Task: inverse folding
């Protein structure tokens, strides 16, 4: 099968691992920099061109859209969806996960447990917002329309004052969430692939530091996830329609609270801490293959592409493409979407996924 990975560079760790695993399984893979894709809207329909020529022929496209190219990258993903090409994850799902308050609204509406959270249009009255979620420690998130926000763990009033200085004058929306206290200040991260938890980590985030993601400066350790936590993580992925994602949870006595879902998590920490066997599996997720084969079957029956002239998406050549500098494809978690790579299944304490 022919796979296209949308990524700024083959030198990004997760992109390289995805390409290697797909090729080991006998798939043809091309890496396409989304910024090299030109979108057109005119009769007889929308079109895509890559580096001035035809867009590579693809049975499945795996987006790895970083925050640095958020808006344009999502437009490329949406255009591919209009073409009837299976895309994992879709544009709407990626966008929902990137908007931290909107994703929590969707999760809460579906009955999933989320931490006490407040949102404001600026830093004025921040101390009062912190009190409304139960006082320090808190997670302070700065939101922006282009997805280039930041986050900070505030464990004391002093760190809260430092946060005020960091965000003062930005004029951006703020989200304040309750966080874990004292020695329990370690949250949980579950990697979900195809509705199943495949790895879980306990993370200790660096406090008092304003950074783009909690991954920066954090420590990770493998953990066996209780069955209830695994079910909630899988349900969060389902609600946001994400085939691959990381679900971040607070591990409270009353049960897990989902405080963020990332559509573009790094797989580096899972490989190191959990010894997840990416290369040994060597396959893309079965969903990607099924989706691609279903599209091939429709084409054989004369279904063609949907919404985009079939002749405008042309033959691809096996090999690498893309450019850019390493790290430019940073997603929600500082590294691009790991695609729908099949990991060795992770089992919760009761033996279920």
Result:
């Amino acid at each position: 099968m022919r796979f296209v990975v949308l990524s700024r560079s083959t030198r990004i760790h997760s992109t390289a691992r995805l390409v290697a695993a797909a090729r080991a399984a006998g798939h043809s893979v091309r890496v396409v920099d989304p910024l090299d894709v030109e979108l057109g809207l005119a009769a007889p329909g929308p079109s895509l061109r890559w580096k001035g020529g035809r867009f590579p022929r693809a049975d499945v496209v795996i987006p790895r859209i970083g925050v640095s190219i958020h808006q344009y990258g999502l437009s490329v993903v949406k255009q591919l969806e209009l073409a009837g090409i299976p895309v994992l994850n879709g544009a709407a799902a990626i966008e929902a996960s990137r908007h931290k308050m909107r994703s929590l609204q969707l999760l809460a509406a579906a009955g999933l447990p989320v931490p006490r959270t407040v949102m404001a249009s600026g830093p004025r009255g921040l101390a009062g917002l912190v009190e409304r979620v139960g006082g320090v420690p808190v997670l302070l998130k700065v939101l922006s329309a282009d997805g280039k926000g930041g986050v900070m763990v505030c464990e004391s009033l002093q760190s809260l004052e430092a946060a005020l200085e960091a965000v003062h004058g930005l004029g951006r929306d703020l989200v304040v969430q309750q966080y874990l206290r004292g020695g329990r200040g370690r949250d949980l991260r579950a990697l979900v692939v195809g509705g199943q938890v495949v790895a879980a980590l306990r993370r200790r985030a660096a406090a008092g530091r304003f950074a783009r993601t909690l991954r920066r400066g954090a420590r990770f350790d493998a953990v066996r996830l209780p069955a209830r936590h695994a079910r909630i993580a899988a349900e969060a992925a389902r609600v946001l329609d994400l085939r691959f994602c990381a679900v971040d949870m607070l591990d409270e006595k009353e049960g897990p609270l989902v405080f963020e879902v990332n559509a573009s998590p790094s797989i580096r920490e899972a490989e190191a801490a959990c010894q997840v066997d990416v290369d040994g599996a060597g396959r893309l997720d079965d969903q990607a293959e099924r989706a691609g084969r279903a599209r091939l079957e429709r084409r054989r029956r004369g279904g063609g592409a949907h919404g985009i002239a079939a002749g405008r998406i042309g033959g691809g050549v096996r090999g690498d493409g893309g450019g850019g500098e390493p790290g430019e494809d940073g997603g929600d978690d500082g590294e691009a979407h790991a695609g729908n790579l099949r990991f060795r299944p992770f089992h919760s304490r009761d033996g279920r996924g």
